[in-house]
Amino acid sequence: MDFEKKLTRLEELVAKMEAGDLSLEDSLKFFEEGVKLSRECNTQLTQAEQKVKVLMAIDPSGKPVTEDFQVKE
C-alpha cells in the first residue's frame, strides 16, 4: 500500500474511533491497525527525507551538498 492510501486509511480509522460507537474490541483492533500504519508512514517519510538530502546538489568538487528536509506549513 502506498503512503497516500495508508494515510487515508489512518484518517478513516481515526474518524471511526472518534465517532465513539465502536465496541471495545473493534476500537482496539482499529487502534492496533492505526499504530501499524502510523509507523509505516513514519518510516516512509524518513526514507523520503534521506532521498531529498541526497538529491539536493553536488558541489564543484563532486561532493554532495545536503540540506535538512524541512516541511513548509
Give a nutshell description of this structure:
By secondary structure, this protein is mostly helical. The chain is 67% helix and 5% strand. A two-stranded antiparallel ribbon has the order 1-2.
Q: Would you kindly provide a written description of the structure presented here, covering whatever features stand out?
A:
- The protein is mostly helical and 73 residues long.
- It contains 2 helices and 2 strands; from the N terminus they run H-H-E-E.
- A two-stranded antiparallel ribbon has the order 1-2.
- A hairpin with a 5-residue loop joins strand 1 (57-58) and strand 2 (64-65).
- Helix 1 runs antiparallel to helix 2.
- The longest helix has 32 residues, at 24-55.
- The chain is rod-shaped and about 60 Å long.
- The two termini are 26 Å apart.
- The model has no long low-confidence stretch (mean pLDDT 86).
List keywords for this structure.
single chain; 73 residues; mainly alpha; two-stranded antiparallel sheet
Per-chain topology:
Layout: H1 3-19, H2 24-55, E1 57-58, E2 64-65
Antiparallel strand pairs: 1-2
Helix pairs in contact: 1-2
